[in-house]
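Please decode residue identities from the backbone states below.
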């Protein structure tokens, strides 16, 4: 099938050199060639199948799809491809040397700021079950309730303090057991969370650099320690050691004796917990030649050769340490290691816990407070690559309390599936994303009481003899479910968001509780909580009250809401669908489910919305997708329509594919896959067949950015987009399909041979175009034609280009906008920079935008500039004050 080779090229790839970790909780229906005719998000397809079963209909009676909603490629492949694509934008061609982001932050710190301030628009609750939006493409009524972005680190004490580390928004503190959050890390150069841990002295350790290895995670700048986390805030002075762990990702911190151990993507390191100065010590790297400075450091696979997922320390002897080492996609060095007379050696004979390289992948350890038990989750690369249902090798216990075992298996995916899971269908069962979804913790007062996190939350109170599912994936398909707008999820109790990453046990006033972190934020329940007869908890509380605005946006769109006399603000989110904020709202709603990619909003009518799921799976609504759920019994009452261009069905589009409207005609849209697709019907379009195939970019080429003005269209592309022959280009033509041609972009530095991420056309002259280039300059990258510069300009329609980067920091550039007053604004991985008309140097836009990735900038009908950040929500600023 078209695109199949690209997707399967490295099934579990994610280049750690810059980024790695998007957690999509949907199977890859849209990417399966010829398998699915309806490009609604797969969550919507799964939901529709379950709804139809609930009504006694054929699972796909409404969609006309004869197949399995999981398609012939599961969600894990979906996430893996996004991992590749997101990393490719920042690394290809070549790799990124350590220190790139740190140097960029230093450059940024040396620039002046404009005096204006940003307004944070999305710092309010976001209800994934908002009863207003129960249209066919929404997940409202699933049961997750209020959500925010991915939480990847948690710590809690016995005085009601909870600390949550978000994927790319930093650390938040709560004094109330969760909720009423306060950010305590905005003074750091990295807001990406690998792990959070409280040590025996009550200090909070913050490991930066998320290591989920799936897509949009970012590298860190090391480990920081806060002596008084109840009152203080992190600063750069709190870093432990030197720069040894800069530009890496950290899976876990573990403590033993007077040492802290760090499991990183560049091996295992240790440091004294008494003296926080001095260098980190590299304890073990299975392939040291592939580390920075090594003889194989330039190898394209170098980032995969020294990955460690966790560390287990014997409670009786802190000198006995077991390392879980290995790339979760599989490699010969995968395995468990312990230190012997001849150094670190691979362990064998661990009992049920596999020790061969094929079956040791992503691993999480947890031990009981009394030292009598060690538990482990193990993901098997072999299963991941061959079993369509699950990649989980199992959950194991060492009843000796020693990490060397002997280990006994206490659960496999079939047992978990049959314990009340929502994931019982072929192609998507517990552990299908075990390489991405894992946590494990033990009740401090009961060594047989364990919580395990995969896609769902599992619990055992008898050491693994039996399991329940207190936090199912969602409530669709359970007999208690109903789409009734008067109820959150029918008669089902609330559940958690899918995809579990972090866990902590805390207490307040002697009452212990469990806090879990997942792709929807943080949730809490009593440690020994209540459940219904299905084993589903009846006492979850969402801690996502809006004060932890960690939402991970890909896009933003703004339009006038005449009825409400204000503006509607929409945006596509990682694993949280599409949010919509309407005038007067105190709670945002979710009108599209799954993953939200690019979006188009009619500036004259904010309820005219086109939302991309992934791979150009575009759906359109003309009423904000307001619906009371009546489409369940009468399909004609659905008000969202599938209008995916044909490249969706053939898999010839990037995961988050570009979608844009003409800056002079809101009813002319451009969508980019292998082809450049044009829609001239605007929001009146009702079918994917109504797109015009304006131009074929060429076999293996996929669009990375599109822009149009008055019918003049520019489409940037790459292909191959990885290190294996990376190429890029720009095609130019007219919206009616005439005059198309490829520009000559020689690999000579005129325009760098790197990922072309953003295009902006001057509305007064369609031959005047700005081009934003992602990645780092040759100073930090290796590979042919890596080039320099991040912003380029043409005034002759692309015949010639000029580097106008000036003193722009050397940081990946994602988006560019040319404002009406002549100011240029560019969104980067570290925020927004502007250059006023006539100025020669850049300034940081505003004084209060967090240092996080800005993936899209768009102007609104109110004249403000809107920034979609991938970790801290949507912000806006008055462009007149950007001087």
């Amino acid at each position: 099938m078209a695109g199949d080779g690209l997707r399967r090229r490295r099934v579990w790839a994610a280049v750690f050199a810059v980024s790695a970790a998007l957690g999509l909780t949907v199977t890859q229906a849209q990417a399966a060639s010829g398998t699915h005719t309806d490009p609604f998000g797969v969550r919507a397809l799964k939901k529709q199948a379950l709804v139809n079963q609930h009504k006694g209909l054929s699972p796909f009676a409404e969609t006309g799809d004869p197949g399995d909603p999981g398609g012939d490629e599961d969600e894990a492949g979906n996430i893996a491809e996004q991992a590749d694509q997101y990393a490719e934008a920042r690394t290809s061609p070549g790799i990124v040397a350590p220190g790139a982001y740190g140097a960029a932050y230093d450059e940024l710190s040396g620039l002046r700021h404009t005096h204006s301030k940003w307004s944070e628009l999305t710092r309010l609750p976001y209800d994934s079950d908002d009863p207003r939006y129960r249209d066919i493409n929404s997940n409202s009524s699933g049961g997750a309730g209020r959500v925010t972005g991915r939480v990847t680190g948690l710590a809690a004490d016995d005085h009601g303090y909870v600390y949550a580390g978000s994927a790319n928004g930093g650390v938040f503190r709560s004094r109330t057991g969760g909720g009423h959050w306060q950010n305590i890390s905005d003074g750091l150069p990295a807001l990406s969370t690998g792990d959070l841990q409280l040590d025996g002295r009550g200090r909070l350790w913050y490991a930066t650099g998320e290591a989920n290895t799936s897509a949009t995670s970012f590298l860190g700048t090391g480990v920081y320690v806060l002596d008084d986390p109840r009152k203080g805030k992190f600063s750069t002075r709190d870093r432990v050691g030197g720069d040894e762990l800069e530009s890496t990702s950290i899976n876990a911190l573990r403590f033993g004796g007077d040492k802290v151990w760090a499991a990183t993507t560049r091996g295992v390191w240790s440091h004294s917990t008494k003296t926080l100065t001095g260098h980190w010590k590299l304890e073990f790297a299975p392939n040291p030649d592939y580390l920075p400075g090594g003889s194989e450091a330039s190898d394209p696979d170098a980032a995969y050769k020294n990955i460690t997922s966790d560390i287990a320390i014997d409670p009786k002897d802190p000198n006995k340490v077991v390392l879980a080492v290995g790339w979760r996609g599989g490699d010969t060095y995968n395995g468990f290691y312990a230190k012997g007379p001849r150094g670190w050696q691979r362990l064998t004979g661990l009992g049920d816990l596999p020790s061969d390289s094929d079956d040791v992948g992503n691993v999480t350890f947890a031990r009981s407070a009394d030292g009598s038990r060690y538990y482990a989750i193990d993901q098997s690369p072999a299963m991941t690559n061959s079993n369509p249902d699950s990649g989980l090798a199992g959950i194991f216990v060492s009843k000796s309390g020693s990490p060397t075992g002997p280990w006994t298996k206490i659960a496999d995916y079939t047992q978990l599936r049959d314990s009340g899971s929502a994931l019982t269908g072929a192609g998507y069962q517990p552990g299908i994303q075990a390489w991405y979804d894992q946590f494990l913790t033990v009740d401090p007062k009961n060594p047989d009481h364990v919580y395990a996190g995969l896609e769902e939350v599992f619990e055992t109170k008898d050491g693994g003899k039996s399991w329940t599912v207190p936090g199912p994936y969602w409530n669709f398909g359970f007999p208690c479910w109903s789409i009734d707008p008067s109820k959150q999820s029918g008669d089902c109790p609330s559940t958690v968001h899918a995809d579990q990453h972090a866990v902590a046990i805390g207490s307040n006033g002697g009452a212990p509780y469990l806090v879990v972190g997942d792709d929807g934020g943080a949730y809490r329940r009593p440690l020994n909580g209540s459940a219904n007869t299905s084993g589903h908890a009846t006492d979850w509380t969402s801690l996502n009250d809006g004060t932890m605005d960690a939402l991970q946006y890909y896009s933003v769109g703004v339009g006038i809401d005449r009825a409400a006399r204000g503006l509607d603000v929409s945006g596509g989110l990682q694993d949280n669908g599409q949010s919509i904020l309407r005038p007067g709202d105190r709670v945002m709603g979710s009108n599209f489910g799954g993953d939200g990619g690019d979006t188009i909003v009619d500036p004259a009518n904010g309820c005219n919305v086109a939302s991309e799921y992934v791979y150009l799976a575009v759906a359109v609504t003309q009423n904000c997708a307001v619906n009371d759920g009546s489409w369940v019994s009468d399909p004609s009452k659905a008000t969202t329509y599938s209008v995916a261009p044909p490249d969706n069905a053939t898999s010839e589009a990037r995961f988050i594919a570009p979608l844009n409207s003409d800056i002079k005609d809101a009813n002319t849209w451009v969508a980019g896959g292998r082809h450049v697709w044009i829609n001239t019907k605007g929001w009146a379009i009702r079918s994917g067949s109504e797109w015009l195939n304006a131009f074929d970019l060429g076999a293996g080429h996929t669009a990375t950015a599109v822009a149009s003005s008055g019918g003049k269209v520019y489409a940037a592309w790459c292909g191959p987009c990885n290190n294996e022959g990376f190429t890029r280009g720009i095609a130019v033509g007219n919206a009616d399909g005439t005059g198309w041609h490829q520009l000559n972009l020689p690999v000579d530095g005129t325009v760098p041979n790197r990922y072309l991420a953003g295009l902006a056309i001057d509305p007064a002259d369609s031959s005047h175009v700005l081009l934003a280039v992602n990645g780092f300059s040759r100073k930090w990258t290796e590979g042919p034609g890596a080039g320099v510069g991040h912003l380029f300009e043409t005034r002759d329609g692309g015949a010639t280009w000029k580097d106008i980067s000036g003193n722009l920091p050397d940081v990946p550039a994602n988006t560019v906008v040319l404002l009406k007053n002549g100011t240029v604004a560019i969104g980067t991985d570290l925020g927004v920079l502007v250059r006023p008309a006539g100025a020669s140097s850049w300034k940081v836009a505003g004084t209060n935008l967090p240092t996080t990735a800005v993936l899209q900038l768009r102007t609104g009908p109110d004249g403000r500039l809107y920034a979609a950040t991938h970790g801290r929500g949507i912000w806006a600023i008055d462009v007149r004050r950007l001087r």
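Observation: DSSP finds six helices and 56 strands in the chain.
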